[in-house]
Specification:
The complex is a heterodimer of chains A (about 230) and B (about 45). Chain A has about 230 residues and is an all-alpha fold. Chain A is built from 7 helices and 2 strands, in the order H-H-H-H-H-H-E-E-H. A two-stranded antiparallel sheet of chain A has the order 1-2. Chain B has one domain (about 1-45). The chains are: A mainly alpha (about 230), B mainly alpha (about 45).
């Protein structure tokens, strides 16, 4: 059996952790935390939307780190790991846009606004990483594709701090700012649920990452075995 | 249930349906691949 078996076992452990943390966090978010003074009950999307967005950033960061390792070492496994991290990041990115759009509809009465830098920059990041897969599909598999994808993944990560800071640099503050230099601007119970939800999202992303890396390694092993048998 | 509450419920449903479906698809795919690799390794021996 191939070396990735432990990845699958770790994935199952992460899946259990994600299930427990997310059930707890989302249950507490709906039933336990107090209503927000400004937004009332609808602010509870915060416990879903913000952890999903932060997890997308982490996945893109991991994708860039693996891409850098590929360029440094030339090891093929980093190409698989980088592509999987970017793939998971793109899924979380799509969910960030979906849940953010729902929150915008409740708070601002619109599904989308082009005047908000944070939203537009996140859309740019999402489209940039969607193009990553177009690039991978258009180049034949091999070291050239791995290097091109790695450079692309590294370029994308530059957009992340810009997107993260856009909310603070924007002149028009309609997007809420809850984390400032003075710490989280929320009640301790709200912060606890937020941390639980973020931990759950990260565990879920790790689960998906472990499963997908393992599936790709098995797929490669299958092709090798078929060639040997044929 | 107010319209705002419905939107919050929609956001939670979107999350659960998309990510948990994806997790289920991946775990089933992984189980299928593991079975196929085991069969191919047996045939190779």
């Amino acid at each position: 059996m191939i070396a990735g078996k432990s990845i699958s076992t770790r994935g199952t452990r992460w899946a259990s952790a994600a299930f427990v943390l997310l059930t707890l966090a989302l249950g507490l978010a709906l039933e336990w935390v107090p209503n927000d003074a400004d937004q009332g009950f609808s602010q509870r999307i915060f416990y879903l939307h913000v952890p999903i967005a932060l997890t997308a950033y982490v996945c893109f960061g991991v994708g860039a780190w693996k891409a850098l390792r590929l360029l440094q070492t030339g090891a093929e496994r980093y190409d698989v790991e980088s592509a999987v991290a970017v793939h998971i990041g793109t899924i979380f990115g799509a969910l960030t846009l979906l849940t953010g759009s729902i929150w915008a509809r409740i708070s601002w009465g619109v599904w989308w606004t082009w005047s908000e830098n944070q939203l537009v920059l996140f859309l740019v990041i999402f489209l940039f990483y969607s193009a990553y897969f177009m690039l991978r599909q258009s180049v034949p598999p091999g070291f050239a594709r791995a290097r091109l994808s790695a450079v692309f993944a590294l370029m994308g990560v530059i957009l992340i701090p810009i997107s993260f800071l856009a909310i603070r640099l924007a002149a028009n503050f309609i997007h809420p700012v809850v984390f400032s230099r003075r710490g989280p601007q929320m009640a301790p119970s709200m912060f606890l649920v937020f941390v639980l939800s973020l931990a759950g999202m990260l565990a879920l992303a790790l689960t998906l990452y472990a499963f997908e890396v393992r599936a790709k390694l098995l797929d490669r092993r299958m092709r090798e075995l078929r060639e040997v048998i044929a | 249930m107010t319209p705002s509450d419905r939107y919050v419920a929609a956001a939670y449903m979107v999350f659960l349906i998309v990510l948990l479906s994806y997790l289920l698809i991946q775990s089933r795919k992984l189980a299928r691949f593991e079975r196929q690799v085991a069969q191919l390794e047996q045939r190779e021996q």
